[in-house]
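Quick question: what would this complex look like in 3D?
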Amino acid sequence: MKSVYEHEIQFMTDFNKFFKPSTVVLLGASSDPRKWGWRILSNILFGGFQGNIYPINPNRDEILGKKVYKSVADVPEVPDLAIIVVPPTGIVTAVQDCVDKGIKAGVVITAGFAEIGAKGVALQKEMLEVARNGGMRLIGPNCFGILSPSQKLYAQMPPVYPPAGSIAVVSQSGNVGATIARRAMTLNFGISRLISTGNEADLHVEDFFQYLGTDSLTKVILSYVEGFKDGRAFIKIASQVSRNKPIIMIKVGETEAGASAARSHTAALSGSDRVFEGACRQAGIIRVHNMRELMNIGYGFLCNPAPRGRRVGIATLGGGWGVLAADACSKLGLDVVKLNEEVLKELDSFLPGWWSRNNPVDLVAGSGMADEMLRVIEVLAKYDQTDGVICLGLPFPSPERPPSPLTDEEGQNRGRLIIDHYKNVFMKIRGLSEKYSKPVIVSAELFVPRHYVQEQDIMSEIAGVGGVCYSSPDEAAVVMHALATYGEFLRR
Amino acid sequence: MKSVYEHEIQFMTDFNKFFKPSTVVLLGASSDPRKWGWRILSNILFGGFQGNIYPINPNRDEILGKKVYKSVADVPEVPDLAIIVVPPTGIVTAVQDCVDKGIKAGVVITAGFAEIGAKGVALQKEMLEVARNGGMRLIGPNCFGILSPSQKLYAQMPPVYPPAGSIAVVSQSGNVGATIARRAMTLNFGISRLISTGNEADLHVEDFFQYLGTDSLTKVILSYVEGFKDGRAFIKIASQVSRNKPIIMIKVGETEAGASAARSHTAALSGSDRVFEGACRQAGIIRVHNMRELMNIGYGFLCNPAPRGRRVGIATLGGGWGVLAADACSKLGLDVVKLNEEVLKELDSFLPGWWSRNNPVDLVAGSGMADEMLRVIEVLAKYDQTDGVICLGLPFPSPERPPSPLTDEEGQNRGRLIIDHYKNVFMKIRGLSEKYSKPVIVSAELFVPRHYVQEQDIMSEIAGVGGVCYSSPDEAAVVMHALATYGEFLRR
């Protein structure tokens, strides 16, 4: 049995077979809509995969309009990728059939292996040996499958169809991976590749990191991990990859209750949390502790450069929001800098006489026109006093309240006007961020008269211009802190 | 000058004048839509206040269709409540005019007092003396105003019109108060009273707590505080009120940056954070550190009883979600109990043979029918092994994917079906929570095909049956922890 790293030479070839396959074979295809063998075929077809698809089932001729083959041997070409959903008892034969056919990449969705105890461990080992000896690489078992939206490949248990984008997802939990994809979709952020790694009999989290490091579509990696099969390889690879692509990770099993749950989930051994925390710092991994931080920080990296330091300027339309942000920044070790006379003077030149002359810069209720907020952001960004700017609150589009009830058409126009207002503001903010090469993180409530416009439509258009709008001052602080920490890692 | 607590006898009378006024006078009404004197009048009128409204402006006859009076003296009756928006220079005269008229309750929205330094401090003191000597109570200055939706009284700077409900808001930041109201509205939770307390020249946070303690509409109090004018009075009153109504509070100024921002915002002196933390514990206040926790825990108290202990049962449709929840619960000091044989046996009777036999109870992918999740919740709730249940994931309504594109009417029916599905599930969950007198906290992604149905519509209907759906396992853990901590306070 060869070790994982004797296969280096085939590395890219192998992974392209997973994520850019021309042909897919599905072992365990079913005609019963309650079974995963039907549902996954249905997902692949509905997702619009353009290559050849060969469902295998010895007892059926056709499923969902596709011709069914009795066995892998019968398929008229050598498929790039095998998706395997046969029951555990049939798994060794299935993998052997793939090897015999010359297939080099397989995703084993079937559960009932190492996660169920000794008997499953043995079966998993047997399956792996067959694959290794045949030069076949495996994802899983006990996983949800994979997505590669640029190829319209949606080979996964849940019917989730994110658009192609820059976020890669590597998750030891299928459900958490799907949650990430669905959350990104609601904000119109797309996915480059999504891998549910399951028990990781063959390929591990770090192998996917290595591939994603070379994958031009991927800009940021979000990961959920319960435990490592090879901690040293993980740190080595993650340290290299994270220099080019930020890795944001939830590592669970921090507590005994969590570790116990992880063991019965994916047979993961969580290991010492303190050791992992240190390894993260060393490898430049941004470790987070919940889904919201994972997503928020991921979006933050897509939309912003890493800052050169920890000094933050805060511009706010509301005093309380400013206090919340100042507290949150300071607790995270960001420096809410005291503004110097040069900056104060420039702000004095256009803010009302009674403004706070402090950081946060409180624009003072009633004076918050869009242009004024943009001017404050620019003043805070352009001087060397700060490394990044947090903007709290955006002016609503005017008029806030139309003079009378609107017709459907007027309502549609009004909705469009509101969307354009925000799109425009975020384009200008992105422009300032790029001009001064500093992150500008926005937290604001959007003005959403639901009769005319939905928040999700506004957020989608904002994402379209490279923007993201967080919902609380503390969330903005958390994102800024992650960017700053990553910036420090890059400078080491 | 009398002290605040010499007015005890008038307490309810005074507060009813604020929150159940028959007549409102607005000093500083303006015909200029850019000015707060116009906007607040507009908000009061648009909100539908049914009592008499008297705008005051010596130079206008009519504004927004309302007859304008030259002075407070000219008003043909004694108004219950004065809303005051005149500039700082006119404030003492304005309050004197109110006192002379016999008005007992005033909201001073005008800014430019203690928060701007010594000159403002003196002016604020002068204004207060006039009011005290005339037996008039004041909210503010430097505040956003108040809401009392049951009376259709929306006397506030921002145009926010939450429906009447059970959440009271007491905020030293007007913006944060408005944010709370808007967030609650999006989930269809209503507001009983909202008070933006501003600089608290006269009435303090704790005075409103005392009133809300007696207010039958209020079930839970959400509060944002930058500093206390009278720490001892606060602790005394909060300790009493929180026995009947949970108080959830953000107290900022934890850091020097936050404290400095608070000083220039509402002239607040934040005080020692450690002292406050201890006082919270003593007074049963649930202290939180960000807006999301504030809202989530508030909803949690509206929808659940306080548990009798810290033992949690977790039911999950996804292994990873379960691990996240177990970690989060355990870190917060909740006990993810080991299930005993009695419970395991009952779960064995209907779960698939390969289920985890562990807490979290992983229902295993593919077996998660709605009824099965409800059965697991019931098993976890009915035995004495747990004090509360966390439910992660809800089955989607079937079919997940309609066989073909739907007509508009079919789409509407489908949307209704999805909403009814979730409403029905949450009604049953509420039923189990009530039957066993234990909290059941739900975190789930909802199935929202946006073409047919909006998430907000589903959430609104869920709130209508006393339910709330959180978006992450860790959020459910945070809410359970807050409920358990409050339960312990009640048992002390």
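Answer marked as accepted. Chain A touches chain B through 71 residues (CB under 8 Å).
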